[in-house]
Give the backbone structure.
Amino acid sequence: MDHALTDAAVTKGSSRGAAGGGGPPTAARPAPTYRRRRLRQGVLAWLRVLPFVGPSLFGVTVFLLLPVILIFVLAFLQWNLLSPPTFVGFHNFVTIFRQDAAGHSLLVTAYYVVLAIPLQTVLALGMAVMLNRKLPGMGFYRVIFVVPFMATPVAMAVVWNWIFDPKYGFANMFIGWFGIPAQNWLSSYKLAMPVLAVVNVWQWVGYNMLFFLAGLQGIPPELLESAAIDGATSWQRFKGVTLPLLRPTMLFVLVTTIIGSFQIFDTVFVLTSGGPGTSTQVLNLSIYQIAFTDFRIGEASAMSVVLFVVVLIFTFIQFAYFRRRTVYEYV
Amino acid sequence: MMARSVGRPLKLGLFYAVLSALGASFLLPYVLAAFASLKPINEIFSQAAWVPPTSLYLHNYANALNNYGFLTAFENTVLVTCALTVGQVTFGVLAAYAFARMRFPGRDGVFWVYLMTLMIPNAVTLIPLFTIMRYAHLLNTYWAIFLPYALGVPYSIFLMRQFFLSIPQHLLDAARIDGCSEIGILRRVIIPMSRPVIITATLIAFVFGWNNFLWPLIVTNSTNKYVLTIAIAEVAGGYGTRWDVVLTGGMIALIPLLVLFAVFQRQIIRSVQLTGSVK
């Protein structure tokens, strides 16, 4: 990042120099001429650079910035895509909590986060610690753990659907070997959400493991060696040296996973469609159904705004922490 | 520490046992699905899932491709994903070069706006994007599926810009003295030197495009425009227990990605760690 800073500083300095190439505005050279020349130079620079940034500028404006503005407009309208929209104020925000159970969806999503995140983080860290040892075969296991994150979630969801089939699925066969009676996994109020959590942990744990692995490789070996010389057991070394030094990685993994978790859709859509009942009715699924099966664009947009706010809160936590960390680094 | 643990064969054996059990549970879903896709439907129901197929039975693949729309869906996915990837990387490289190496007023301000858009969750933009596509009369076209992600996305522009900044200025100056235009510098100096980050951006774009589900689900409604993810969800919803069709459909989407992973695994693993260190 400090590359960017020095570069920006250099650019600022030199562009000021270039603009002043004809001499700074003095009494002899009236300000309007200088300003006009600067303006012309600016326009020329933009014309030169437009073939480069033009397409992405259009894309970012129309497909990212405009939607963000629009979502805050749509959230205050009543609109079914056919008749002209009407302004309804905060009415949609009342409707989504009273009628569309936005509160319930938030809780369901939070329950998912509580189930999935600790399991995923502990597993990812454990796997990274195991693979960080210089033993034969580690590269092979790393590949096995990492492949799932590329696998199409929808395709994997149908595979899991089959594995958790009560009658023909592998899951019931497997627990049967240990004498556990067969379960109705995905149609059980108690088990549907844990199954979704396990499926998503399977998909993403290897991805997060890679971050921990990179973090572990960044720990200076001298620190662990000196702790060992001081007589620290391997658990003490892990707790006293490794874990504190992994804190930035841990926060990055936690925050990005939580932000992602609030947006889960694919696996829920295929495996449970929110059921049984509304026990897995996550926020993103509600938004989709309200918008594209009920065609209540206003209410769905209001719910998107709620989702946006939740995600922003976690983003700011990350930002605040990383600023603090940067300060520590320079001290 | 290492010598000690190697000296304890029992501990080491336990270590590998745990690792292998974990590894098996990670491989299991693909292996079971691949087995099932190569068995006739009656064997899928009658045999245990972990029994390998006895012969190379490819009927399920022909059936899914020809009778359940997976051939069309496969072609659509290839088309849309390639368009998305080529666009995103080409326009991304151009923008990243401008932000890293060209001078124009407001450059850092514009780039700051790009960075801010990283905070926008994808799910939040979908409804407005749908209304934009509807207004542009692009619903149910290939354009609608790939266009929003094909003009360069801030994330990959950011990734590539950081890389371009690390290329020594004197190389660019030398090219400029030799009479290279900006495009010439980009083609002859920047791109050859930035192969790793460009491969990373390409892989990220391709996997995103290939796996994308919610957005195509929103903007397409006729079977001749379906991509693989939609086709899979469709057969899973409509023929829930026809495991031969459903699982084979899933495998049709997974096989190209597994091949991609086999070819590029080193780059993929490096690119994940690259994205982590940049963020």
